[in-house]
Write a structure and sequence with these properties.
The chain has about 140 residues and is α+β, with helices and mostly antiparallel strands. The chain has a single domain, classed as Multidrug-efflux Transporter 1 Regulator Bmrr, Chain A (Alpha-Beta Barrel), CATH 3.20.80.10. Strands 1-6-8-7-3-4-2-5 form an eight-stranded antiparallel sheet.
Amino acid sequence: MKYEVVNLEEKIIVGFAAETSNEDPQMGAIIGGLWQKLYSPENAGKITDRANEFAIGLYSDYTERGYQVTAGFEVKKAEDIEGMTVKTIPAGKYAKFSVHGDMVKAVADSWKEIWATPLERTYTGDFEEYTSMEDIDIYIAIK
């Protein structure tokens, strides 16, 4: 799978987070639940200081047992919103994979290819940026 190397500035994300792993049989339900919570009527308008309208799926805080996943939006400055998590995507070098297609199937298929791509990953924060219903950029932190 082709990618380009890009340098990104720090991003601040506000959203809902949970712990999971690729081996967790509930991973799909956990991640799906975060997105449902983010877009629920009671939460949809709570993040008011958005940097843009792109949704972010962030994978961070990697351990031997798994990682934290956050579904949210980039904000201009950190804001505490009750029940939500604030995360920082560090500035740095990323491998950027551009995906087009069904946001669930295309992203899942792309991750399988990304995992098989030889990258010197830093595991400081990888994320999906949903720029439209069918256009997604996946960023992998690299050395």
